[in-house]
Model the fold of this input.
Amino acid sequence: MRRSLVYGVAGAAFGIALVLTLVGAGDDPDGLTNPQALVLGLVQGLTELLPISSSGHLILVPWAADWTYLEQNDRFNQTFDVALHLGTLVAVGAYFWDDIVRLIHAWLGSVRQRSIDSSDQRVAWFVLIATIPAGVVGLIGEDAIADSLGEPWQIAILLAAGAALLWLADRAPQERAMGDLGMRHAVAMGLAQALALAPGVSRSGITITAGRFMRLDRDSAARFSFLLLVPAVLGAVLLKGVGDVLLGDLPDGWQGPFLVGTLASLASGLLAIDWLLGYVRRHTYGVFVWYRLLAAVIILFVIASGVREATF
Done:
C-alpha cells in the first residue's frame, strides 16, 4: 500500500471518527461515550500492532481513567471488542492486500500440486499452521482466561516479562527471511501466539519475539506478526461477530461508539504498521522493551500508592 494512500485513508478515518465524536452522533451519556470510544479505538490500533499488548491497554486505560462502563457491562464490552478488532483487521488487510492475495494463490497452488516448492508457499503454510494453536486454546480456554487473567497487577508482570524476552530475542543475529523458516518453526510460533491470549503478553510482541529467537531479521519478524494477525483476528471477529452481533441483540447505545471505535482503530492501525516497518529497518526493538518496563513500573506504583486498586 502506497504511503500517501496509507496516510490519506488513516486521515479520512480519523477525521470521520472525530466529527462523529464532536457532534455526539449516537452518543449515550449513560453508556460508553463517543470520546471514550475514540480513545479506546486509537489505543487498540496502536497497541494491537506494536509489541505492547492491546488487550492489556484496553483494560489499563479504563482502569486508569476510572471508566467502569465496559467492566460493568460485559455484553457491551464483548461486542465493542469485535468492532475495535474489525478496525485493525481492515488496517492490516488493506496494507498487506497484495501480499495476502499472493499467499492465498501460493497456498492454493501448493494444495493442487501436493507439494511446497516456493518461498510464498512455505510462508502461506507457515501462517496457517501457526494460527491453529491459538485458535484451539482460544476456543477451549476463553472463559477460564477471562475469569483468571486481566487484572492490572497481572498485566504489569506480563508486560515486564515480555520486555525481558524481547530484549533477549532481539540480541539474536538477523540471518533469516520469512521463506527460510520450516514447519517446526510454525508450530513453535503457533504455541507462542497462544500465550498472547493473556492480557499483557501482546500477540504482536510474542510473535516478534519468537521470530527474532528464530533469527528472522527485524523487518521479517514484524511482517510475519502482521500476516499472522489476519487469520487469528478474522476468526475471532467472525466467531464473536456472528454469535454476539448478528445472532444476538445489540446493546443499547452501540451505534456511535462502535462506529467511532472502528474508524479510530483503523486509522491508528494503519499508522502503526507503516511506522513500525520503517522504524525497525534502522533500529532495534529496544524502545518497546523500555516502554513495557516503564508501563509495568507505573502500574505497580499506582497500585502501591493506593491511587487505584490492584484489580479492575
Q: What stands out?
A: The longest helix spans residues 119-148.
